[in-house]
Design a protein that fits this description.
Layout lengths: L4 E6 L14 E2 L2 E2 H9 L7 E7 L5 H9 L3 E5 L4 H11 L4 E6 L7 H13 L4 E3 L13 E4 H10 L3 H6 L2 H5 L5 E3 L15 H14 L7 H6 L12 H8 L3 H12 L23 E5 L2 E4 L4 E4 L3 H4 L8 H10 L12 H12 L5 E5 L2 H16 L4 E4 L6 H4 L33 E3 L5 H11 L3 E4 L9 H14 L2 E6 L12 H4 L5 E4 L10 E5 L1 H4 L16 H16 L1 H23 L3 E6 L2 E6 L4 H14 L2 E2 L3 E2 L7 H22 L22
Parallel strand pairs: 1-4, 1-6, 4-5, 7-9, 12-22, 14-15, 14-16, 16-17, 17-18
Antiparallel strand pairs: 2-3, 6-8, 7-8, 10-11, 11-12, 13-19, 18-19, 20-21, 21-23
Helix pairs in contact: 3-5, 13-21, 14-21, 22-24, 23-24
Length: 678
């Protein structure tokens, strides 16, 4: 059966962006019915098969296909490659023509031309998706059964299984052909959203009652120029320009200097003029904005605070139980003692604890204690440690030297208001640069080394052990700032996993699952110096923070949430790798799984990052290139996120091949890091 060319149309009802689109009407026919009629014009194809998921979610589609007398193959929903393989095997296909169920303009004549190219060129695989290419909506892949079998047997990752042909396209042993046309046009004519369906309807209305017109006739009539472009811009404007969040941000700027309290929540960091900015409510990993849009938070999850999801019932109920008993009193609450005991229990090297409410406060307290204990003022540090004078004073140093924050998170930060007398008291070093750290210790009489266990890298265990050794030899106090990393990947500090203990450790963010609580834990002989200085504040004695922290730790221990979060992060990192590999986009994945991000290895990184935020927001997903995973990021949510991200990567791929990224961006480019906003 050398000429057994089988058209397999993959179709489903459960599109995340446009459910049931395959059953929508264009004139008197459904989308899938029109596809069937148009591909029947192929003279070289023997059979047409609709390959659909074998589940109840697609029951309506199954019955409709039966009604229109279509051949049906039922298979795996997620593993579309498996669905194709067994469909092709059942119908004894020699060559397979792959078509997706969102392309009602697919051309039967074009199918025959591509089959002919496959045979004449003795190719294993031919597609028409490379520039100069056919418009999105006329996508066709033709490949032999040998290639399909090879992909089925060798494909390992989810992207390869979901998108059928990635393994074939990158296999150097197979002969790959390209089918292109000179008269290409960049208008989206597949159906992803209602706007796409309206565009397709306009084309069919122009030719009615003829439903068998060709792609070339669309071009000749210049119909693509009359369509409403689905290039994010107009749709974004319609959806978000009148955003109540943006209106509220403009209002805030009139009465709040800078507009907000936290730079990490400024809309300029994400999508200027369009970021929702404010929320009405949040639950799990969903946020409802002021326009009542329910958004998936696939970004910062409360800037790293809500590892157990927003409004976790167990934590909230613990807080609710103590509120009627009063949050504050002239006397102290017992919960702070219980929390201190629990933290010491989890970190046997530590003996005593102090509490605060914010990470910046905790960092300043730790430095104050360490300076008192060491009898030295000078601090060597790496990483980010808040807004206090001790830290920002680094930017008072000579900018020609490697002694400012430019090599750290806050590049070029202005620090007006920081006393110049603090100059030459804080000195940065880069994570992993042991040689430079040794020079600092020798030249600057360093009494304290303050650092994160890791931020954008995996922990460098050898480096951390060497730092610990130096601190022991030189009697330097070692502080680990684990405000961000603590309680995410283990029950307590990340340093427990690598076997390097500090003299002081700081926890925050995840410790209270969104409630304000930070902790400074340390060795007795060092922590007792709190009595040799002045460290005191009224609201460090409130009750809600310690209560929430106790409930959070209990929940984490009982449910091993740190294991779950790590596993979720690993899934996300794998998705990033698979998506970038499929689209041949170079990225660098950074950080530990529970605290991860990626960078584009391109000069247009920031623009691509902005595009991701723009596009994901159109599908009600808050996203950038960084993710703080939480336990509510289910497989289903990860799949939805990944599907959409893959679509954005396809656009980025076009830009890397020569398209202008600025044509896709409606928003101004998001700012980098902590650039001053006013």
């Amino acid at each position: 059966m050398k000429n057994n060319n089988i058209i397999i149309i993959q179709s489903r009802q459960t599109s995340t962006r446009f459910p049931n689109k395959v059953l929508k009407k264009i004139g008197k026919f459904t989308v899938c019915e029109i596809i069937k009629k148009r591909v029947e014009k192929s003279k070289l194809s023997k059979q047409i098969i609709f390959a659909i998921p074998n589940n109840n979610k697609n029951k309506k589609l199954f019955h409709h296909l039966k009604k229109i007398k279509a051949n049906i193959f039922l298979g795996s929903e997620k593993n579309v490659l498996k669905r194709y393989f067994y469909a092709a095997k059942k119908f004894k296909a020699n060559n397979i023509i792959r078509i997706t169920g969102d392309c009602p303009l697919i051309d039967g004549k074009l199918i025959d031309e591509m089959i002919t190219k496959l045979k004449k060129g003795k190719f294993d695989y031919v597609n028409n998706a490379k520039p100069p290419h056919f418009s999105d909506g006329f996508d066709i892949e033709v490949f032999n059964f040998k290639s399909l079998r090879l992909a089925f047997e060798a494909s390992t990752n989810e992207i390869e299984k979901e998108h059928v042909t990635p393994f074939i396209k990158k296999n150097k042993k197979l002969k790959i052909g390209r089918f292109s046309q000179i008269n290409s046009f960049d208008t989206k004519l597949s159906i992803d959203r209602p706007i796409d369906l309206n565009n397709v309807k306009k084309i069919f209305n122009y030719f009615k009652p003829n439903i068998y017109f060709s792609v070339n006739s669309i071009f000749k009539k210049k119909l693509h120029l009359r369509l409403k472009k689905n290039n994010f811009n107009k749709e974004l404007s319609l959806k978000l320009k009148t955003s109540n969040g943006q209106k509220f941000w403009n209002k805030a700027n009139k009465v709040i200097s800078g507009g907000g309290m936290l730079l990490s929540k400024y809309p300029e960091r994400y999508l200027p003029d369009y970021w929702p900015t404010y929320f009405k409510s949040a639950k799990g990993c969903f946020v409802t904005d002021l326009n009542k849009n329910k958004l998936i938070d696939f970004s910062l999850m409360g800037v790293g605070t809500n590892v157990l999801g927003y409004a976790n019932t167990k934590i909230d109920n613990a807080v609710k139980r103590i509120i009627p008993k009063s949050n504050m009193s002239t006397l102290n609450c017992t919960e702070e003692v219980s929390l201190a005991e629990k933290l010491v229990e989890l970190h046997p090297w530590a003996h005593k604890v102090r509490f605060a409410r914010t990470g910046g406060e905790a960092n300043a307290i730790a430095v104050r204690i360490a300076r008192a204990a060491s009898k030295k003022d000078n601090v060597a540090f790496c990483g980010y440690h808040g807004w206090h004078d001790w830290y920002l004073s680094t930017n008072l140093n000579n900018k020609t030297e490697k002694k400012n924050l430019d090599s750290h998170l806050i590049k070029g930060l202005k620090v007006e208001g920081v006393p110049k007398s603090l100059k030459q008291t804080s000195f940065p070093f880069n994570y992993g640069d042991l040689g430079y750290l040794k020079k600092l210790i020798y030249r600057k009489n360093i009494g304290i080394i303050k650092m994160e266990v890791c931020r954008n890298t995996q922990p460098n265990i050898k480096f951390l052990k060497n730092v610990r050794k130096i601190c022991n030899e030189k009697k330097i106090i070692l502080i680990f700032d684990e405000c961000t990393t603590g309680f995410r990947q283990t029950l307590g500090g990340l340093h427990k996993d690598i076997g390097v203990n500090p003299d002081i450790a700081i926890f925050g963010k995840a410790l209270g699952n969104g409630y304000a609580i930070t902790a400074i834990i340390g060795k007795k002989d060092i922590m007792d110096y709190t009595q040799n200085t002045f460290i005191s504040s009224t609201f460090w004695t409130e009750r809600i923070g310690p209560t929430a922290a106790l409930a959070t730790i209990e929940f984490m221990k009982k449910n091993s949430t740190y294991k779950k979060i790590k596993k979720i992060g690993e899934k996300i990192q794998k998705k990033w790798k698979d998506i970038s590999d499929e689209n041949k986009i170079q990225i660098k994945i950074n950080g530990i799984p529970s605290l991860t991000n990626f960078n584009f290895l391109s000069s247009d990184h920031q623009k691509y990052k902005t595009l991701i935020t723009q596009e994901m927001l159109l599908d009600n997903i808050l996203a950038t290139t960084a993710v703080y995973p939480c336990i509510d990021h289910s497989d289903k949510i990860i799949e939805k996120y990944s599907d959409k991200l893959n679509d954005v990567f396809k656009v980025i791929k076009k830009c890397e091949e020569g398209y202008d990224i600025n044509k896709y961006l409606k928003s101004k480019e998001s700012i980098k890091g902590f650039k001053r906003l006013n």
